[in-house]
Specification:
Layout: H1 9-14, H2 21-30, H3 36-46, H4 59-67, H5 75-80
Helix pairs in contact: 2-3
Amino acid sequence: MSNTGDLTDIGRKMVEFPVDPPLSKMLILSEQYNCSAEILTIISMLSIPTIFSNPKGREQESTAAREKFFVPESDHLTLLN
């Protein structure tokens, strides 16, 4: 939004996406960084219930499987993996 309350050019693009505003802005800006496919994957993963489960009796197996995807610096990169 501009200082006068009008939608900016990027704001007009953002309203076209059926996701939260920060996610739509992230997707729009990803084009500049040539990472749209990766950002789209991350947004998709954030838009669904978690895929990581911890079933009773299989906690160790579940944790070991999750660790294959884990990136300590970023939950988003973990989702991308």
